[in-house]
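Sorry to interrupt, but I need a hand with the structure work. Could you write out one complete protein record for me, on any chain you like? Could you add the entry underneath, on a fresh line?
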Amino acid sequence: MAEVIDQPRPVRAGEELDVAVLDSYLKQHIPGLTGTLELTQFPGGASNLTYQLKYDDRELVLRRPPFGTKAKSAHDMGRECRVMSALHGHYPVPEVLVFCQDDSIMGCDFYVMEKVTGIIPRKEMPKGLEFTEEQTRQMCSNVLQKLLELHSLDYKALGLEQLGKGEGYVKRQVEGWSHRYRKARTPDVPDFEDVMVWLDKHQPADVKTCLIHNDFRLDNVILNPDDPVQIIGVLDWEMCTLGDPLMDLGSSLAYWIQADDDPVSQALRIQPSHLPGMMTRDQIVEWYCQHAGLKIQSFDFYLVYGLFRLAGIVQQIYYRYYHGQTQDKRFAVFNQMVIQLEQRCQTIVQAALQKQHNQQSESVSEPVL
């Protein structure tokens, strides 16, 4: 099974770290490190960067913000550490070993954690890992169960009651992402104004306040190498906050490209959500609401929100590339992703408006008895 375990690669150009300075710092702050530090980088990650640190008999993981100008409130390493430290022992997260705020080490805050060795389901499942449809469905259900478990945690008992503002989350997110998108827009992407107006007019009330991940995807979970349908770790906590669980689910489903989606969407897929046995978006919503005890008339708002929010995240990254703040060539086509996300939003919005129009027409045409 070793061949399917997630492996790091050589560090990408422009994202190198000073190995000598880092090694000296780590050996002062983490007892027992011996040997020469070998630095590699994990693939993926358009936001915070993730590196493997290999010593004689120990492998660690380092997380740091991206190089270049960053969004004002994004990439808070201290926040991510605080969340993971509170969750450790109550939820499957790696143990944080050291948090560094000394800019002389690499010019930014960063932290180092224990490595959880396992399988990460990225765009394609690793070669050599063959799931049956039943196993795929079970893995999918187990991932959703972990999301539900997160939403069920007592965040006050964990000491995380100050993590977010709580009630009013839906309204704050619609307003906040509208502002951020307008600020990050470049001339080669849509303005999303129709979508933002629709979201503003169709805001539901918060269903409850709970701990939400805000980036819960297949490629942010770690599968057990000995039983790959089981989840042994959840990663990437930089956007964790207190909010509405359906907004969290909508954000997750923005990434969920299923087998019958159009070819353009398929080309933008970043996780293996298309495999035979995976639930569809509708099935995921049905599963979640049933197990969470929630009843909703429509998921349209949450899905449009998730797609628009993803467009905002992608556009903030593309803005950095467009203005020469990063040289990462992966970001060169991110404007095309934003265009596709706008089209998906428009499809859902127009269908919802048509449905509303039809319902109103049927109501007016009913005979008065």
